[in-house]
């Protein structure tokens, strides 16, 4: 029986040592888990702050982009001072030419109306689309608009040739 009690005592001692070791390991793991939780929480806080700052920056950049787009649109529609001055010089020269040259005014009005028609034709309709899509060299090759070329009368040429003989 003594041996039994010695074996039981030794077993209890090993059991108590195992339980103490197990409790110590559990505490160590709990501390590590708490440490990892705090690190993850800090990281998530930092990332959320960064993400919110990035969103704010994106919003401010979008607003700035829209403001710049509006500014560009308004500035592109306003003539600058040089252009206005140049147009005034052209207007004055047209007035002077109308007064000095008697045939200038009707020719000018005809040229102006032709230019306005050509401008309207260039910026509206099918032709601007074709000019954007098809290279200009191909357009020049297949240009079917009638060209004004003086026609040669064969009868007049033969009469002048006979008179020279």
Describe, in plain words, how this protein is organized in 3D.
- The protein is an all-alpha fold.
- The chain has a domain at 17-78.
- It has 6 helices and no strands.
- The N and C termini lie far apart (163 Å).
What's the gist of this structure?
It is built from six helices and no strands. With 165 residues, the chain is mostly helical.
Strand element count: 0
Contiguous uncertain segments of 5+ residues: 146-165
SSE string, helix = H, strand = E?
Answer: HHHHHH
- Report mean pLDDT, rounded to a whole number: 78
- Taken as a percent bin, the fraction of beta residues is under 5%
Distance between the termini: 163 Å
Biggest sheet architecture: none
SS-based class: mainly alpha
Number of helices: 6
The Rg value, from CA coordinates, equals 47 Å
Which descriptor suits the 3D outline? rod-shaped
Helix amount, in percent? over 70%
List keywords for this structure.
165 residues; disordered C terminus; 0% strand; rod-shaped; 6 helices; mainly alpha; 85% helix
Which SSEs are present, and which pair or pack?
Layout: H1 2-77, H2 81-100, H3 104-123, H4 126-133, H5 136-141, H6 154-164
């Amino acid at each position: 029986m003594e041996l039994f009690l010695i074996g039981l005592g030794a077993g209890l001692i090993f059991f108590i040592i195992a339980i103490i070791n197990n409790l110590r390991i559990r505490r160590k793991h709990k501390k590590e888990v708490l440490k990892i939780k705090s690190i993850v929480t800090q990281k998530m806080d930092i990332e959320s702050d960064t993400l919110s700052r990035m969103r704010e920056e994106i919003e401010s950049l979008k607003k700035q982009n829209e403001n710049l787009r509006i500014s560009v649109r308004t500035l592109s529609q306003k003539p600058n001072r040089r252009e206005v001055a140049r147009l005034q010089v052209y207007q004055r020269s047209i007035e002077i030419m109308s007064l000095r040259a008697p045939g200038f005014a009707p020719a000018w009005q005809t040229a102006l109306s032709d230019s306005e028609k050509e401008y309207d034709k260039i910026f509206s309709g099918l032709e601007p689309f074709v000019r954007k899509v098809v290279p200009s060299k191909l357009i020049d090759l297949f240009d079917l608009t009638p060209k004004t070329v003086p026609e040669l009368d064969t009868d007049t040429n033969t009469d002048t040739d006979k008179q020279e003989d």
